[in-house]
Design a protein that fits this description.
Blueprint lengths: L1 H17 L4 E5 L10 H9 L3 E5 L6 H13 L5 E6 L1 H9 L5 E7 L10 H5 L11 E3 L5 E4 L4 H5 L5 H10 L3 E2 H4 L13 E6 L7 H11 L2 E5 L6 H4 L1 H13 L2
Parallel strand pairs: 1-2, 1-3, 3-4, 4-8, 8-9
Antiparallel strand pairs: 5-6, 6-7
Helix pairs in contact: 2-11, 3-4
InterPro entries: AB_hydrolase_1, AB_hydrolase_fold, Sec-Metab_Biosynth_Hydrolase
GO molecular function, one term: hydrolase activity
Keywords: Hydrolase
Length: 247
């Protein structure tokens, strides 16, 4: 009888472990904010996921990782952690949190320990697709030239959407740009990536190289701009669901 009870308990634990994750935490990138996640948020919540959006300050890598971990801590169970662009740098560090079970990178940076955004985006073999990132007058923050924003960042989004994003963009601290991650969650946790082939913000070749190095499961999207979560939200949701369902 005891053996039967033990086997039942083990069987129950296995089923529970295999159940899809229902918590999704979304981390935006530089030159954007959390409002861009609305199409993905709406689709996920309709499907029954509990979704939280991090509004990280972009004042430093440490501050953004801390902001993300505060939101992770509020979830009631395992988490799929999703990062766009600079958000990939953030989830790589924040994803070591034990609640995080899988990671999704959307047109995102995917550093290894010791690498910063500056390290990756200045690699000679992967030149940046644009030179439209400027510094504020005090030299402390980066921003994307509003006049070039749509062409560089959101080319396949309506003009009014891109204009709003350009005028509401969150500036990225220079010190965040040069700060390396201390640990990389993807080295011990499964990861997925969505690669927009017409990205004019982060080189698609750099993305392909990073994702291959990490062994991520990659979905390439022909013709998509950097804001693939806006232009292809259904595809992005399907990848997040794959990460949520993986054992």
């Amino acid at each position: 009888m005891a053996s039967a009870a033990l086997l039942g308990a083990v069987g129950f634990a296995d089923v529970s472990q295999a159940a899809p994750i229902h918590n999704v935490v979304l981390v935006h990138g530089a030159f954007a904010d959390g409002s861009g996640w609305k199409p993905v948020y709406d689709r996920l919540t309709i499907k029954g996921y509990h979704v939280a959006v991090v509004q990280e300050p972009e004042t430093s890598l440490a501050a953004d990782i801390a902001a993300t971990r505060r939101v992770i801590d509020m979830q009631d169970g395992p988490v799929v952690l999703v990062g766009h662009s600079w958000g990939g740098q953030v989830i790589t560090g924040a994803g070591v949190d034990p609640k995080v079970k899988s990671l999704v990178y959307l047109a995102a940076l995917m550093p290894k320990p010791g690498e910063s955004t500056a390290t990756l985006e200045t690699m000679k073999q992967f030149p940046p697709p644009n030179n439209d990132v400027k510094k504020t007058a005090d030299g402390a923050y980066f921003y994307l030239d509003p006049d070039k924003y749509r062409a560089d960042f959101a080319a396949d989004s309506p003009a009014n959407v891109a204009d709003f994003m350009a005028d509401s963009q969150v500036f990225l601290a220079v010190q965040a740009f040069t700060a390396p991650v201390k640990a990389a969650a993807w080295q011990t946790k499964p990861s997925w990536a969505v690669l927009p082939e017409a990205d004019h913000t982060i080189s698609p070749d750099l993305q392909r190289w990073m994702y291959k190095r990490a062994g991520a499961k990659v979905t390439e999207v022909p013709g998509s701009s950097h804001t693939v979560f806006l232009s292809h939200p259904d595809l992005v949701v399907s990848v997040i669901e794959q990460a949520a369902a993986a054992p």
